[in-house]
Amino acid sequence: MCGIVGYLGPNQAAPVLLSKLRCLEYRGYDSAGVAVIEAGRLNVIKAVGKLANLETLLQKERPMATVGIGHTRWATHGSPTDENAHPHINANGTLAVVHNGIIENYAELKAELTARGYVFRSDTDTEVAAHLLSYELEKAPTDVLRAIIRVVAQMRGAYALGIVSQHHPDRIYAVNHHYSLTVGLGEKESFLASDSTAVRQFTNKIIRLEQSEIAEITTDGVRLFAFDGNERTRDPISVESNAYKIDKEGFKHFLLKEIHEQPLVLRQTLSKYLISADQPVNFNVESFAPGLSAMYGVSLSDDQVRSIDRIQIVACGTAYHAGLVGKYVIEELCGIPVEVDIASEVRGRKLLVNNRTLTIAVSQSGETADTLAAINEAIESGSFTLGITNRPDSHLATLTPNLIVTECGIEVSVAATKTYLAQLVSFYLLAIYLAEKRGSISDQYARELKRGLSHVPAVIEQVLAREEAYRRESLKLADAHDVVFIGRGFNYPTALEGALKLKELSYIHASGYAAGELKHGPIAVLDSSVPVITVLVPGRVYEKTLSNAQESRARNARMVAIAVDGDESAPSTFDYIFRIPPIDEILSPMVTVVPMQLMSYFVADFLGKDVDQPRNLAKSVTVE
Ligand code: G6P
Predict the structure, then answer these.
(1) Domain 467-606 has CATH 1.10.1040.50
(2) Residues 343, 316 contacting (CB under 8 angstroms)
(3) For 415-481, where are the E strands, in sequence order?
(4) 522 close to 552: Cβ distance less than 8 angstroms
(5) Is the pLDDT of residue 466 over 70?
(6) What residue ranges of the chain are covered by domains with CATH 3.40.50.10490?
(7) In what side-by-side order are the strands of the sheet with 558-564?
(8) What is the pLDDT of residue 200?
(9) Cβ of 597 less than 6 Å from ligand 1
(10) 364 lines ligand 1 (CB under 6 A)
(11) Are 133 and 106 in contact (CB under 8 A)?
């Protein structure tokens, strides 16, 4: 969702800005633009749709400029149009602003500015920042910093800004207010980006902006200021400069590649925290998040672990489904009650946590606004906190002293797949870790679980090897308008995730239900046109799930199962079966979801959908 970039240095700015915008493409956007200062004049070029449209314009215009800012926009205020695309300019076109986040009091500010004679050309909240800055600059045209300080004092919300002015072509200003912005420092050149990956392709010397901070960026470096104008000093930190590669490695889509990477990312995440089945899970690995004081891992003392009497999980989207699996596993192994909340539902409500609660925020990006707001609330209430993220350089990583980092590499496809699996394995490891420390499972069972976990990547490899059979079965679902997914127990969240994947990718309406709930309402929608996809794994809830499937069959639904090899009951109930190798019920969510991911992929690709960047979706949802 929305990305900011900036460049100033000896090179042509437009190609650098475009290359950095490409790095941010995966976050999701619906228009893009740049503002460069060309021969002393601001030149704004923007285009609705994919970056290729902006690239075509840039190739035509070939702006000669060595300073500029750029943006990918995911529409919040106003539809995706050229007018609403960023950058936004002031009335006389001398300064340009790009913006992530939301200016909450924009309507109020817009009314004031309109009364002063400012004319708005877009429906965005961003344009308010451009006109307000222009208004404040009229008071002291040379002091941009003071003007920005007066602007941020008037704006409410969580946001990040990038600003260029043709009167000051030697600098870019950046503002970070409860967002993420990184400045990269090269040899006589500087970079700005809302995601450090977009900077790391050019330099490994970075400064992450702290909250409520203003940066004045020149080719010589960066000066940092608090919102009260006080200057702050901070040394840059060195990060791995490995270039961010966008490479499908022969796969048709990133999504398919990322589904296939799942055994690898599970092995990587497991090997970091699990040495062998005979040793306790160890989260205190010797690695540090770049620029963070906290070590990755869990630094709770044994007494603190024993004092926890409740766990609260907060997350959004796919990460929320991972949290639901976490609940089932932690409650089973540790006997600690676990609540899972959709992070946006924590807003405006009392989060009942205290100093005996462990609050866990799960977020692939570590930047999801609602999840960050929820974890902040937990911190204020004195709860222990822990983050599960794929981004050790994220905002989430700065908020919590305990961090489980999933080892997935960048996930480019907007729909989460490999990071979901890695979040699941993190929950299994965490549950075993807590159970070992609290003595709630036997050593023997802990060993069995750890052996089982280590075997999961090989089972997923066997599942992936069946891809062609899954493809054939999947295409039978492509004509459906509504699809129902059901599962019980550990696989109730799998049903939710299966439905989410199918609708995200193929735009076919799909809902997931606890299998036992089907007869309490959803069964009314069933007829011969509706496929019911049942997750059926031998174990405690097998018979009951099968009975719920039978209820659907009696309503003539098209019956589909995810069932294990050798399950002889399945063929008499289901029209088609996605077979998976046998797997323990407790570990099965890591396996049962994979055929569903592939099913969603094959259907979406068959229907010609934009698999890697589904319409309206963003990877990193940085607004509430
Ligand atoms: C967006 C993405 C989802 C993701 C959710 C939470 O909606 O499209 O794939 O699950 O955000 O993101 P997070 O980065 O917090 O895991």
Answers:
(1) no
(2) yes
(3) none
(4) no
(5) yes
(6) 254-464, 467-606
(7) 509-514, 482-487, 531-536, 558-564, 576-580
(8) 83
(9) no
(10) yes
(11) no
Say what the pLDDT of residue 242 is: 53
Q: H or E element: which one contains 337?
A: none
553-579 confidence digits (pLDDT tens): 999 999 999 999 999 989 999 999 999
Query: Catalytic: 60?
Result: no
Joined together, the tokens standing for residue 187 give 């040899």
Cα angle 482, 484, 489; round to 5: 165
- pLDDT tens-place string over residues 215-236: 999 999 999 999 999 999 999 9
Helix ranges restricted to H, 281-368 = 302-307, 317-334
Query: What is the per-residue pLDDT across 183-212, written as a single tens digit (0 to 9) for each?
Result: 999 999 999 998 888 888 889 899 989 889
pLDDT band at 289 (very low <50, low <70, confident <90, very high): very low
Mutate to test the pocket of ligand 1, among 1, 195, 368 (most ligand atoms within 8 A of CB): 368
Assess whether the C-beta atom of 204 lies below 6 angstroms from ligand 1: no
User: Ramachandran region of residue 109, left (φ > 0), alpha (ψ -120 to 50) or beta?
Assistant: alpha
Task: Determine the distance separating the centroid of ligand 1 and the alpha carbon of 401, expressed in angstroms.
Answer: 22
pLDDT at 245: 60
Distance, CA of 313 to CA of 323 (rounded, Å): 6
Which residue has the CA at smallest separation from atom 5 of ligand 1?
317
Mean pLDDT across 457-469: 97
Name the closest-CA residue to atom 1, ligand 1. 619
Which residue type is seen at 520? H
Cα of 561 from ligand 1 centre, angstroms: 27
Domain with CATH 3.60.20.10 in the chain: 3-238
Average pLDDT of the chain, as a whole number: 93
Alpha-carbon Rg for the chain, nearest whole angstrom, is 25
Q: Is 365 in the pocket of ligand 1 (CB under 6 A)?
A: yes
| Partner residues linked to 177 by β-bridges | 159
Q: Indicate if ligand 1 lies below 6 Å from the C-beta of 201.
A: no
pLDDT in tens, 313-372: 999 999 999 999 999 999 999 999 999 999 999 988 889 999 999 999 999 999 999 999
Residue 368 Cβ inside 6 Å of ligand 1? The answer reads yes
Task: For residues 203 and 183, give the distance between their C-alpha atoms in angstroms, rounded to a whole number.
Answer: 10
User: Closest Cα to residue 20, out of 189, 177, 141?
Assistant: 189
pLDDT for the residue numbered 241? 55
Q: Is 619 a catalytic residue?
A: yes
Q: Is the CB of 502 under 6 A from ligand 1?
A: no
Residues 11-46 pLDDT 10s: 999 999 999 999 888 888 899 999 999 999 999 999
* Whether the model pTM is above 0.70: yes
Distance 451 CA to ligand 1 centre (A): 30
DSSP E strand boundaries for 53-150:
67-73, 88-89, 95-103
| CATH number corresponding to 254-464 | 3.40.50.10490
State the distance from the centre of ligand 1 to the C-alpha of 502, rounded, in angstroms: 15
CATH of domain 3-238: 3.60.20.10
